[in-house]
Amino acid sequence: MNRNELLYIRLSFFISVLICAAKFIAWLYTHSLVIFSDALESVINVAGAAFAWYSIYLAGKPRDEDHPYGHGKIEFFSVGFEGGMIFIAGISILIQAILFFIHPKQVEQLQAGIWLSVAAGAANFLLGYFLLMKGKQRNSITLQGNGHHILSDGYTSLGVIVALLLILFTGVKWIDPLASVVAGSLLIYTGSKLVRRAIRGLMDEVDVNVIDDIITILKENRKNNWIDVHNLRAQRYGNNYHVDCHVTLPYYFLLEQVHDEIKRMDEALNSNFKKGSIEFFIHTDPCLEVSCGHCLIADCAVRKKAFVKKIEWSRDNLLPNKKHEYSD
Q1: At 172, phi and psi to the nearest 5?
Q2: 108: which DSSP letter?
Q3: What domain count does the chain have?
Q4: In the β-sheet with 228-237, what is the strand arrangement from edge to edge?
Q5: Distance between CA 305 and CA 27 in Å, rounded?
Q6: What's the CA gap between 320 and 315, in Å, rounded?
Q7: Of 101, 188, 269, 326, which sits 20 to 30 A from 236 (CA to CA)?
Q8: Residue of 195, 201, 180, 182 whose CA lies nearest to 87
Q9: Looking at the domain assignment, is residue 188 inside a domain?
């Protein structure tokens, strides 16, 4: 369990409760729909922080017989839950805005509402930026997702303040529901993005940045005996990654030599990969005659074809389930 991540998410939860309370007080003072919209989003912040708290706790538990890959996938559920709640809040705000146009209400005590909104918005910006920074440092999608949500709440609060100031100075009532329509639309957009991110993670969609990092490490630590690497795949479980691939080695290697080469590859990855720890599963293939054209072993005693050219490793040849070939 990452105690620092739990500490940050607890901080997010308790501060979100205070911000939510301040916004509802502002709504009770003003009866403003746009403030109500902002307060409703803060309720989602509190619910999201509570779920994120639990998900970080669960993700930190060691793997067991029922969960051989650990519990890290819960982080994608957390992001998806928060995104879904944000999306529903956006829809609810749009409905309230339509009802306001049909049955307008008087907005009152705007100055008090403005000051409370300023305080709540500033707190949201500071908390969201802090969580986002810590989430990136620790490669935690839960902290990043919660930070993005709270930052979006901060931008919503900024819009609320602008709307309240316009109402205060112009006296135009329809600015209130119009601003809430903008806020609701932004929430729908933010929520849908988080849901899509969660679905991508749960469906093990390829993370190009992770794949590129792995390929870069393999290229920088490449050994002549590693004739080729193919069928490379990576799955994320919290801050742990399950990576598997096929590695072509000289067919005449003894089992002990094969083990040593795989161990060197494993150590190179885990020593240089910065996003988390890697559990490496490798299937070994024997080299074929067609491999001679790009095999880098200069003193190979069983070479059947002359060396032609070194094949540079990239996504194009490491991801497909096919041995590298190079010949005239």
Answers
A1: -85, 115
A2: -
A3: 2
A4: 228-237, 240-249, 277-286
A5: 80
A6: 8
A7: 188
A8: 195
A9: yes
Contact 52, 145 (CB under 8 A): yes
pTM score, two decimals? 0.64
- H helix runs in the chain, sequence order: 3-30, 33-59, 74-102, 110-137, 141-170, 175-202, 208-220, 255-272, 315-318
141 vs 143: CA distance, rounded Å: 6
Residues in the chain: 328
Tell me the C-alpha distance between 130 and 251, whole Å: 53
What domain range includes position 66? 3-202
Query: Longest Cα pair distance anywhere in the chain, in angstroms?
Result: 91
Residues 6+ apart with CB under 8 A from 287: 227, 248, 249, 250, 251, 295
Residues 111 and 222 in one domain: no
Token pair for 225: 């005996």
- In angstroms, rounded to a whole number, what is the distance separating the alpha carbons of residues 213 and 315? 11
Per-residue pLDDT tens, the chain, 328 aa: give them.
Answer: 456 777 887 888 888 888 888 888 888 888 777 777 778 777 877 877 787 777 777 766 777 777 767 777 777 777 788 788 878 878 877 887 787 777 766 667 777 778 888 888 888 888 888 888 888 787 777 777 778 777 877 777 777 788 778 877 887 777 777 877 887 788 888 888 888 888 877 777 778 889 999 999 999 999 999 999 999 998 887 667 889 999 999 999 999 999 999 999 999 999 999 877 888 889 999 999 989 999 999 889 899 988 999 999 999 999 999 988 765 5
Helix (H) or strand (E) holding 231: strand 228-237
The CATH number of the domain holding residue 305 is 3.30.70.1350
